[in-house]
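From the shared-data thread, chain only:
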Amino acid sequence: MARASWIDDNSHPDLDAHVDNLEHFAASLADGVIDATELATQETNLVAAMKAVEGSLSDEQHAKVTKLLAELTAYAVMRTLHEMAQARIQSGLQPSAGKA
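Structure, as tokens:
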């Protein structure tokens, strides 16, 4: 099986195909609300995946993966905040019903 790259042709992170394979993620998003149980389940899945990998890494690999995870987390938070700000800007630009 060919390895799917983490980066698209335009040098942007491209993990969508990998995330799409997480059935529990799609099920959690189905109703548009992430509840505390779904979040706890995802945390458990994350910790299990981390434990499965961490012990098999050399110190050098561990440092690289740790940096990758930190950068990914920072990117995800920053992207979410950016998208929320863009949505607020867009909603502020749209005319409100009843205003003249």
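The chain has a mean pLDDT of 89.
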